[in-house]
Specification:
By secondary structure, this protein is mainly alpha-helical. Helix content is 50%, strand content 0%. It contains 3 helices and no strands.
Length: 80
Amino acid sequence: MGRKVGGVYISPKKFGNMTRPCMQEMITFLSCLSLNQNKDDKCARQKDLLNACMDSQGSKNRKSWGSINYHLQRLNRGRK
């Protein structure tokens, strides 16, 4: 994907400090799977914790504002 010369663009990879919900639960579940040769019946507790965390995150009704690049380009158009 190319971009126009002079366009405003922010790489989303630079935002490493954003929150990552359920990361700890996912790491524990994946490490349990790796220790038990991918047998998820032995990792039922970790799987339940991960599912509970993911369900609690999905219930939040957040309004999406769109991508930051879209808004930066929109604001930049108004300046010209």
